[in-house]
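re the bet — no i am not wrong, look at it urself. input seq straight from the record:
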Amino acid sequence: MGVLSVDHLLGIKYIDKNDIQLIFETADHFKEVINRPIKKVPSLRDFTIANIFFENSTRTKLSFELAEKRLSADIVNFSAGQSSVKKGETLVDTVNNILSMKVDMVVMRHPNPGAGVFLSNHINASIVNAGDGAHEHPTQALLDSYSIREKLGEVGGKKVVVVGDVLHSRVALSNIFALQKQGAEVMLCGPKTLIPKHIHKLGVQVEQDLKKALHWCDVANMLRVQNERMDVSYFPSTREYSQQYQLNKNLLDSLDKEIVVMHPGPINRGVEITSDVADSEHSIILNQVENGVAIRMAVIYLLASKIKK
Protein backbone atom coordinates (compact mmCIF):
# COMPACT_ATOMS: atom_id res chain seq x y z
CA MET A 1 0.00 0.00 0.00
CA GLY A 2 1.43 3.39 -0.98
CA VAL A 3 1.30 6.59 1.03
CA LEU A 4 -0.18 9.94 0.01
CA SER A 5 2.26 12.83 -0.46
CA VAL A 6 -0.07 15.15 1.53
CA ASP A 7 -1.55 15.22 5.04
CA HIS A 8 -4.76 16.96 3.92
CA LEU A 9 -6.90 16.94 0.81
CA LEU A 10 -7.26 20.69 0.28
CA GLY A 11 -7.40 20.71 -3.51
CA ILE A 12 -6.31 18.74 -6.56
CA LYS A 13 -3.75 21.50 -7.05
CA TYR A 14 -1.73 20.11 -4.12
CA ILE A 15 -1.61 16.43 -5.07
CA ASP A 16 0.26 14.64 -7.85
CA LYS A 17 -0.49 11.92 -10.36
CA ASN A 18 0.79 9.19 -8.03
CA ASP A 19 -1.60 10.36 -5.30
CA ILE A 20 -4.51 10.18 -7.75
CA GLN A 21 -3.44 6.68 -8.83
CA LEU A 22 -3.19 5.52 -5.22
CA ILE A 23 -6.63 6.93 -4.38
CA PHE A 24 -8.11 5.10 -7.42
CA GLU A 25 -6.49 1.77 -6.52
CA THR A 26 -7.74 2.11 -2.94
CA ALA A 27 -11.21 3.00 -4.22
CA ASP A 28 -11.20 -0.16 -6.39
CA HIS A 29 -10.80 -2.16 -3.19
CA PHE A 30 -13.53 -0.25 -1.35
CA LYS A 31 -15.90 -0.54 -4.29
CA GLU A 32 -15.70 -4.28 -3.87
CA VAL A 33 -16.45 -3.83 -0.12
CA ILE A 34 -19.52 -1.65 -0.84
CA ASN A 35 -20.98 -4.40 -3.02
CA ARG A 36 -20.73 -7.07 -0.31
CA PRO A 37 -23.74 -8.07 1.80
CA ILE A 38 -21.96 -6.61 4.86
CA LYS A 39 -20.73 -3.26 3.63
CA LYS A 40 -18.56 -2.27 6.59
CA VAL A 41 -14.86 -2.58 7.33
CA PRO A 42 -13.43 -1.92 10.82
CA SER A 43 -10.52 0.18 9.44
CA LEU A 44 -11.29 3.39 11.35
CA ARG A 45 -12.69 2.21 14.66
CA ASP A 46 -11.75 4.71 17.41
CA PHE A 47 -11.26 7.40 14.76
CA THR A 48 -13.44 10.51 14.97
CA ILE A 49 -14.42 12.62 11.98
CA ALA A 50 -16.27 15.94 12.15
CA ASN A 51 -18.35 16.95 9.14
CA ILE A 52 -18.59 20.75 9.22
CA PHE A 53 -20.78 22.29 6.56
CA PHE A 54 -20.95 26.09 6.52
CA GLU A 55 -22.97 25.84 3.30
CA ASN A 56 -25.92 23.63 2.49
CA SER A 57 -25.12 20.33 0.90
CA THR A 58 -27.21 17.22 0.66
CA ARG A 59 -25.43 14.85 -1.69
CA THR A 60 -21.82 15.53 -0.76
CA LYS A 61 -22.62 15.40 2.95
CA LEU A 62 -24.53 12.14 2.62
CA SER A 63 -21.75 10.63 0.53
CA PHE A 64 -19.08 11.54 3.10
CA GLU A 65 -21.23 10.27 5.99
CA LEU A 66 -21.84 6.99 4.24
CA ALA A 67 -18.12 6.62 3.47
CA GLU A 68 -17.25 7.31 7.12
CA LYS A 69 -19.83 4.81 8.39
CA ARG A 70 -18.60 2.13 5.98
CA LEU A 71 -15.13 2.60 7.52
CA SER A 72 -16.63 2.32 11.06
CA ALA A 73 -15.49 5.83 12.10
CA ASP A 74 -17.26 7.85 14.80
CA ILE A 75 -18.96 10.89 13.31
CA VAL A 76 -19.77 14.36 14.60
CA ASN A 77 -22.07 16.35 12.30
CA PHE A 78 -22.15 20.09 12.43
CA SER A 79 -24.37 22.26 10.25
CA ALA A 80 -23.23 25.82 10.59
CA GLY A 81 -26.47 27.15 9.13
CA GLN A 82 -28.29 26.40 12.38
CA SER A 83 -25.45 27.20 14.72
CA SER A 84 -23.57 29.88 16.60
CA VAL A 85 -21.70 30.82 13.44
CA LYS A 86 -24.79 32.92 12.77
CA LYS A 87 -24.07 34.65 16.10
CA GLY A 88 -20.68 35.81 14.86
CA GLU A 89 -18.43 32.99 16.02
CA THR A 90 -15.25 32.72 13.92
CA LEU A 91 -14.14 29.72 11.92
CA VAL A 92 -11.22 29.08 14.30
CA ASP A 93 -13.50 29.27 17.37
CA THR A 94 -15.96 26.85 15.87
CA VAL A 95 -13.29 24.39 14.94
CA ASN A 96 -11.44 24.64 18.23
CA ASN A 97 -14.67 23.82 20.01
CA ILE A 98 -15.06 20.76 17.84
CA LEU A 99 -11.42 19.75 18.27
CA SER A 100 -11.77 19.94 22.04
CA MET A 101 -14.00 16.91 21.46
CA LYS A 102 -10.84 15.13 20.23
CA VAL A 103 -11.54 14.95 16.52
CA ASP A 104 -8.95 13.38 14.19
CA MET A 105 -10.25 14.64 10.86
CA VAL A 106 -12.45 17.49 9.65
CA VAL A 107 -14.47 17.35 6.42
CA MET A 108 -15.44 20.93 5.67
CA ARG A 109 -17.48 22.84 3.14
CA HIS A 110 -17.17 26.62 3.38
CA PRO A 111 -18.26 29.54 1.15
CA ASN A 112 -14.80 31.17 1.27
CA PRO A 113 -12.09 29.99 -1.12
CA GLY A 114 -9.03 28.83 0.83
CA ALA A 115 -10.93 28.14 4.07
CA GLY A 116 -9.48 24.62 4.22
CA VAL A 117 -5.92 25.85 3.75
CA PHE A 118 -6.46 28.45 6.50
CA LEU A 119 -7.79 25.78 8.81
CA SER A 120 -4.96 23.34 8.13
CA ASN A 121 -2.52 26.00 9.35
CA HIS A 122 -4.44 26.55 12.59
CA ILE A 123 -5.58 23.19 13.86
CA ASN A 124 -4.03 19.83 14.47
CA ALA A 125 -6.29 17.55 12.46
CA SER A 126 -6.41 16.25 8.92
CA ILE A 127 -8.62 18.42 6.66
CA VAL A 128 -10.67 17.26 3.70
CA ASN A 129 -12.04 20.09 1.56
CA ALA A 130 -15.65 19.26 0.62
CA GLY A 131 -15.91 22.47 -1.42
CA ASP A 132 -14.61 25.97 -0.74
CA GLY A 133 -16.78 28.54 -2.48
CA ALA A 134 -16.37 28.53 -6.25
CA HIS A 135 -12.76 27.37 -5.84
CA GLU A 136 -12.13 23.60 -5.49
CA HIS A 137 -14.08 20.41 -4.81
CA PRO A 138 -11.36 17.75 -4.91
CA THR A 139 -13.36 14.62 -4.10
CA GLN A 140 -15.87 15.45 -6.84
CA ALA A 141 -13.07 15.75 -9.42
CA LEU A 142 -11.56 12.47 -8.20
CA LEU A 143 -14.85 10.61 -8.50
CA ASP A 144 -15.41 12.15 -11.94
CA SER A 145 -12.01 10.96 -13.20
CA TYR A 146 -12.49 7.59 -11.52
CA SER A 147 -15.83 7.20 -13.32
CA ILE A 148 -14.18 8.03 -16.67
CA ARG A 149 -11.44 5.48 -15.95
CA GLU A 150 -14.06 2.87 -15.11
CA LYS A 151 -16.04 3.54 -18.30
CA LEU A 152 -13.22 4.15 -20.82
CA GLY A 153 -10.32 2.22 -19.28
CA GLU A 154 -8.11 5.23 -18.66
CA VAL A 155 -8.19 9.00 -18.37
CA GLY A 156 -4.91 9.77 -20.17
CA GLY A 157 -5.38 10.80 -23.80
CA LYS A 158 -9.12 11.38 -23.46
CA LYS A 159 -10.82 14.62 -24.49
CA VAL A 160 -13.17 16.02 -21.87
CA VAL A 161 -15.41 19.04 -22.31
CA VAL A 162 -16.84 20.82 -19.26
CA VAL A 163 -20.03 22.60 -20.29
CA GLY A 164 -21.94 25.42 -18.63
CA ASP A 165 -21.43 27.64 -15.61
CA VAL A 166 -17.66 27.33 -15.22
CA LEU A 167 -17.39 30.73 -13.53
CA HIS A 168 -19.30 29.71 -10.39
CA SER A 169 -18.21 26.09 -10.36
CA ARG A 170 -15.75 24.55 -7.91
CA VAL A 171 -16.18 21.28 -9.80
CA ALA A 172 -14.70 22.76 -13.01
CA LEU A 173 -11.41 23.96 -11.51
CA SER A 174 -10.74 20.71 -9.63
CA ASN A 175 -11.63 18.74 -12.77
CA ILE A 176 -9.23 20.78 -14.93
CA PHE A 177 -6.38 20.07 -12.49
CA ALA A 178 -7.25 16.37 -12.10
CA LEU A 179 -7.72 15.67 -15.81
CA GLN A 180 -4.55 17.47 -16.84
CA LYS A 181 -2.47 15.67 -14.20
CA GLN A 182 -3.63 12.39 -15.71
CA GLY A 183 -2.85 13.43 -19.28
CA ALA A 184 -6.34 14.25 -20.58
CA GLU A 185 -7.18 17.26 -22.76
CA VAL A 186 -9.73 19.72 -21.40
CA MET A 187 -12.08 22.10 -23.18
CA LEU A 188 -14.55 24.51 -21.59
CA CYS A 189 -17.82 25.39 -23.31
CA GLY A 190 -20.42 27.94 -22.29
CA PRO A 191 -21.55 31.53 -22.72
CA LYS A 192 -18.65 34.02 -22.60
CA THR A 193 -20.08 35.53 -19.43
CA LEU A 194 -19.78 32.17 -17.62
CA ILE A 195 -16.19 31.38 -18.63
CA PRO A 196 -13.58 32.93 -16.27
CA LYS A 197 -11.48 35.61 -17.97
CA HIS A 198 -7.99 34.18 -17.62
CA ILE A 199 -8.84 30.48 -17.66
CA HIS A 200 -6.86 29.82 -20.86
CA LYS A 201 -3.71 30.31 -18.77
CA LEU A 202 -4.47 26.89 -17.32
CA GLY A 203 -3.91 25.35 -20.75
CA VAL A 204 -7.55 24.62 -21.58
CA GLN A 205 -9.35 25.27 -24.86
CA VAL A 206 -12.50 27.40 -24.88
CA GLU A 207 -15.34 26.83 -27.34
CA GLN A 208 -18.61 28.77 -27.48
CA ASP A 209 -20.38 26.36 -29.82
CA LEU A 210 -21.73 23.29 -27.99
CA LYS A 211 -22.08 21.19 -31.12
CA LYS A 212 -18.42 21.74 -32.06
CA ALA A 213 -17.36 20.91 -28.52
CA LEU A 214 -19.36 17.66 -28.55
CA HIS A 215 -17.84 16.64 -31.89
CA TRP A 216 -14.40 17.15 -30.33
CA CYS A 217 -14.89 15.31 -27.03
CA ASP A 218 -15.00 11.76 -25.68
CA VAL A 219 -16.69 12.88 -22.47
CA ALA A 220 -19.09 15.75 -21.76
CA ASN A 221 -19.37 16.89 -18.14
CA MET A 222 -22.53 19.03 -17.89
CA LEU A 223 -22.55 21.63 -15.10
CA ARG A 224 -25.67 23.12 -13.64
CA VAL A 225 -26.34 26.83 -13.82
CA GLN A 226 -25.75 28.02 -10.26
CA ASN A 227 -28.43 30.65 -9.92
CA GLU A 228 -27.87 30.86 -6.17
CA ARG A 229 -24.33 32.20 -6.78
CA MET A 230 -25.37 34.85 -9.29
CA ASP A 231 -25.90 38.36 -8.10
CA VAL A 232 -26.43 39.63 -11.65
CA SER A 233 -27.82 38.01 -14.77
CA TYR A 234 -25.15 36.30 -16.86
CA PHE A 235 -27.46 35.39 -19.74
CA PRO A 236 -30.85 36.67 -20.94
CA SER A 237 -33.04 33.75 -19.81
CA THR A 238 -32.97 30.10 -18.86
CA ARG A 239 -34.83 29.36 -22.07
CA GLU A 240 -32.16 31.04 -24.16
CA TYR A 241 -29.41 29.27 -22.21
CA SER A 242 -31.09 25.92 -22.89
CA GLN A 243 -31.43 26.65 -26.61
CA GLN A 244 -27.66 27.05 -26.87
CA TYR A 245 -26.19 24.84 -24.16
CA GLN A 246 -28.65 22.08 -23.38
CA LEU A 247 -27.58 18.51 -24.07
CA ASN A 248 -30.62 16.77 -25.54
CA LYS A 249 -31.31 13.57 -27.46
CA ASN A 250 -31.38 15.27 -30.90
CA LEU A 251 -27.94 16.75 -30.31
CA LEU A 252 -26.52 13.43 -29.10
CA ASP A 253 -28.01 11.57 -32.07
CA SER A 254 -26.55 14.11 -34.51
CA LEU A 255 -22.98 13.18 -33.49
CA ASP A 256 -21.13 10.63 -35.58
CA LYS A 257 -19.87 8.86 -32.45
CA GLU A 258 -20.86 7.90 -28.91
CA ILE A 259 -19.80 10.14 -26.05
CA VAL A 260 -19.96 9.63 -22.30
CA VAL A 261 -22.27 12.03 -20.44
CA MET A 262 -21.59 13.12 -16.85
CA HIS A 263 -23.10 15.56 -14.37
CA PRO A 264 -21.91 16.43 -10.85
CA GLY A 265 -25.54 16.90 -9.68
CA PRO A 266 -27.99 18.12 -8.66
CA ILE A 267 -29.42 18.11 -12.18
CA ASN A 268 -31.67 20.88 -13.47
CA ARG A 269 -33.60 18.57 -15.77
CA GLY A 270 -34.70 20.40 -18.90
CA VAL A 271 -32.14 23.18 -18.44
CA GLU A 272 -28.57 21.96 -19.05
CA ILE A 273 -29.59 18.38 -19.80
CA THR A 274 -32.84 16.62 -20.72
CA SER A 275 -34.17 13.60 -18.84
CA ASP A 276 -33.87 11.29 -21.84
CA VAL A 277 -30.12 12.02 -21.95
CA ALA A 278 -29.57 11.96 -18.17
CA ASP A 279 -31.25 8.56 -17.96
CA SER A 280 -29.77 7.14 -21.19
CA GLU A 281 -27.09 4.49 -21.64
CA HIS A 282 -24.62 7.28 -22.52
CA SER A 283 -24.94 8.67 -19.00
CA ILE A 284 -22.74 7.57 -16.10
CA ILE A 285 -24.40 9.95 -13.62
CA LEU A 286 -25.55 7.19 -11.26
CA ASN A 287 -22.12 5.53 -11.43
CA GLN A 288 -20.64 8.83 -10.32
CA VAL A 289 -22.85 8.77 -7.22
CA GLU A 290 -21.85 5.20 -6.33
CA ASN A 291 -18.19 5.92 -7.04
CA GLY A 292 -18.37 8.98 -4.80
CA VAL A 293 -18.67 6.79 -1.71
CA ALA A 294 -15.73 4.55 -2.73
CA ILE A 295 -13.52 7.55 -3.56
CA ARG A 296 -14.34 9.29 -0.27
CA MET A 297 -13.67 6.06 1.64
CA ALA A 298 -10.29 5.87 -0.11
CA VAL A 299 -9.37 9.51 0.65
CA ILE A 300 -10.39 9.25 4.31
CA TYR A 301 -8.66 5.89 4.77
CA LEU A 302 -5.39 7.05 3.16
CA LEU A 303 -5.29 10.31 5.14
CA ALA A 304 -6.20 8.50 8.35
CA SER A 305 -3.44 5.95 7.87
CA LYS A 306 -0.96 8.85 8.01
CA ILE A 307 -2.22 9.96 11.43
CA LYS A 308 -3.10 6.59 12.96
CA LYS A 309 -2.69 6.81 16.72
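see?? The chain has a mean pLDDT of 92. told u. also The beta strands are 48-53, 74-79, 105-110, 126-132, 159-163, 185-189, 205-207, 219-222, 260-262. so pay up
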